[in-house]
Design a protein that fits this description.
Radius of gyration: 21 Å
Number of helices: 11
Largest sheet: 7 strands, mixed
Number of strands: 9
Distance between the termini: 66 Å
Strand order of the largest sheet: 1-9-8-2-5-3-4
Shape: globular
Strand content: 5-15%
Structural class: alpha/beta
Helix content: 40-55%
């Protein structure tokens, strides 16, 4: 037997074993009552934290993000985050049973720019408006249910999807998380696919808060973080409309959508690099503000700072937020660059 066939057989066995374990866990949890499953997973999450699973990463992240809070308060946030993430897993497993077109209106509270458009123009007006929009969110609230909620409202969002290496688990997770009818943009070659979607009038959703291998250094919670520049490039170079928000948990299978439409026309100059950095810094600052309001619902389990060396400390700097126009669209005042907690991003005029 050739080395390639031996290698392939080894991974076939491993992938099938992983798939069997995943199926047992998924359908075992689905066999439980939702209430029991939520309570069970919350207990498991707290136990994992106390046993040290990702505890150092969580504690380090919270030390960086909230140096002014006491150790007791940071521990409270950490335990509440584990409760939240554990509950989110059960939400995903039960969402197609409990979050349906007939039930979403009593389970989801709409606020922000969507609420304003619904009040002014009704559902049909919202559907007409929501075309060619880049929906940005972070790992805050329940990002997994967001495309499904919007789809029930008649607004289709195509998410960026990173395929797991195990093809059997990939099929299982896609069915659980997205449903068979949901289209996705594969992460490889995503930019070209996204542009095609926007040109056809479609919408795309991106989780943009994780560390980028090749990105831009902008302030995030008082330190520089390497951030993805793709959203800024789509906004600046292709004129894509952008909406930043989140779907927050307000109880078991109860949600609130929040967010605003953003206008970055005033960020455009002849210096593309400076524009991309300024837009990225503004987006990250807005996400930071959202996370500060709901720190228990942010995914502090991933290592956001310091993978490639010690982060640069940014001195805190308070500044008024930019004005928000009617309809939820924000514009940059002359002091927008100083909105972030870090120094102003140098720009040419």
């Amino acid at each position: 037997m050739s080395k390639w066939r031996q290698f392939n057989r080894k991974y076939q066995i491993r992938y099938r074993a992983e798939y069997v374990v995943a199926v047992v866990l998924v359908y075992g949890m689905r066999a439980l009552s939702p209430r029991f499953a939520w309570n069970l997973m919350r207990g498991v999450g707290r136990l994992m934290y106390r046993m040290g699973v990702r505890k150092k990463v969580v504690d380090d992240n919270l030390d960086i993000a909230f140096p002014d809070k006491s150790p007791e308060e940071r521990k409270r946030i950490a335990l509440a985050m584990m409760d939240h993430f554990s509950s989110l897993i059960i939400d995903v497993l039960f969402q197609r049973r409990m979050l349906t077109p007939s039930t979403y209106q009593r389970r989801v509270h709409i606020s922000g720019w969507m609420k304003e458009y619904l009040d002014q123009h009704g559902l049909e007006g919202l559907q007409r408006r929501a075309h060619g929009v880049l929906f940005l969110t972070g790992h805050v609230g329940n990002w997994e249910v967001m495309p499904g909620i919007f789809k029930m409202m008649g607004v289709s969002i195509t998410p960026i999807y990173r395929r797991p290496s195990n093809p059997f688990v990939d099929k299982l997770l896609r069915d659980i998380r997205l449903g068979q009818s949901t289209e996705v943009v594969e992460r490889r070659g995503a930019v070209a696919q996204m542009i095609e979607r926007f040109e056809a009038g479609g919408n795309v959703g991106i989780l943009f808060d994780q560390e980028a291998i090749y990105g831009l250094q902008v302030p995030f919670f008082g330190r520089y973080a390497t951030c993805h520049k793709t959203p800024a490039a789509l906004v600046r170079d292709h004129g894509v409309k952008v909406a930043l928000g989140a779907t927050l948990r307000r109880g078991d299978m109860q949600y609130e959508t929040i967010g605003r439409l953003l206008n970055y026309e005033e960020f455009k100059t002849d210096d593309r690099d400076a524009d991309l950095k300024a837009i990225t810094a503004d987006l990250m600052q807005r996400l930071e503000e959202l996370i500060r309001e709901e720190p228990e619902q942010y995914f502090w389990l991933h290592r956001r700072w310091g993978k490639r060396g010690p982060p640069i400390k940014v001195p805190p700097k308070g500044a008024p937020a930019p004005k928000v126009e009617a309809g939820g669209e924000s514009t940059r005042s002359s002091e927008t660059s100083s909105r972030s907690t870090g120094p102003k991003v140098a720009r040419k005029k």
